[in-house]
Write a structure and sequence with these properties.
- The structure holds 2 protein chains of 2 kinds.
- Helix content of chain A is 44%, strand content 21%.
- Chain A has a single domain, classed as Rossmann fold (3-Layer(aba) Sandwich), CATH 3.40.50.2300.
- By secondary structure, chain A is an alpha/beta fold.
- Chain A is built from 5 helices and 5 strands; from the N terminus they run βαβαβαβαβα.
- Chain B is an alpha+beta fold.
- Chain B has a single domain, classed as 3-Layer(aba) Sandwich (Chemotaxis protein chec), CATH 3.40.1550.10.
- Classes of the chains: A alpha/beta, B alpha+beta.
- The interface between A and B is medium-sized, with 23 and 29 residues.
């Protein structure tokens, strides 16, 4: 089964890196969508079937925290698992994002197998 | 606010930078500098608010930024544009700063600004560490204290 993934990060370079890691991880990828902030991400999931969202936190216009909160307020969209991928590795931030509804948290820097492990955790 | 002396901060820079560079850029940190291509300097800075607040900066040459970009993106250095090299340097600054702050204050809460390319080196005294990479030197600097 191929999974549709949405990568949300304001850095095109980081989106490119995550896409590359996903490709190398061996996971069967379907469509790989990209968004540069939470607002674009919400627009994307409104139009497309997405199996998992990988999101940064610090982004302009709508950050990852607000994105996870908005997804959690929607009866349908709350079922999409969200993995936070962030440089912020402080305990407080991780707990905060998980309480908001994120299913997993990957701290940058990360190994490809770490991301693969989290994907397996939320998708399988 | 935490109390951290300059030597602890320098160690945090060294260990965090090595982890970020080796994990995400597949680039080792060397013991000694190697001859590297000279080039236009690139400096990227960001501020962070929290306990403690501060300013963070990295300095490298465009050639080093291109080489790191190529490693990060899985492409050839010749294919990396100056714009993309600066973008990757900004992402490197973001990752390094977040990683260092997580080491010096794992229970803290920080808000990082977006990294911005800057024209010149800061003149304020900072804790700074030079990291020798195969493609050149990366200088990582951090100033803890009130953000201007």
């Amino acid at each position: 089964m191929a999974f549709n993934v949405l990568i949300v990060d304001d850095s095109a370079a980081m989106r490119n890196f995550v896409r590359r890691v996903l490709t190398l991880s061996g996971i069967e990828l379907g469509d790989c969508f990209e968004a540069s902030n939470g607002r674009e991400a919400l627009a994307c999931v409104a139009k497309n079937w997405v199996d998992v969202i990988l999101t940064d936190i610090n982004m302009p216009q709508m950050n990852g925290e607000e994105l996870v909160r908005r997804l959690g307020q929607d009866d349908v969209l709350r079922s999409i698992p969200v993995i936070v991928v962030s440089t912020d590795g402080t305990d407080m931030r991780m707990q905060q994002m998980m309480q908001l509804g994120a299913r997993a948290y990957v701290k940058k820097p990360f190994l490809p197998e770490t991301l693969r492990g989290k994907l397996d955790q939320v998708l399988l | 606010m935490i109390a951290i002396d300059d030597s602890e901060l320098a160690r945090a820079i060294q260990s965090s930078a090595a982890e970020v560079l080796e994990t995400m850029f597949f680039t080792p940190v060397l013991e000694e500098p190697e001859p590297a291509e000279a080039g236009a300097p690139i400096s990227v800075s960001l501020t962070f608010h929290g306990s403690p607040p501060g300013t963070f900066q990295i300095d490298l040459t465009e050639a080093t930024a291109r080489a790191l970009s190529a490693d990060f993106l899985g492409t050839d250095a010749e294919e990396v544009t100056a714009e993309r090299a600066t973008e990757v340097a900004s992402e490197l600054a973001n990752m390094l700063c977040g990683s260092i702050l997580s080491v010096i204050e794992p229970n803290g809460h920080f808000d990082l600004s977006s990294p911005e390319p800057i024209d010149r080196l800061r003149e304020k005294p900072v804790v700074s560490r030079q990291l020798y990479l195969p493609s050149g030197t990366l200088t990582v600097s951090i100033l803890l204290g009130d953000v201007p």
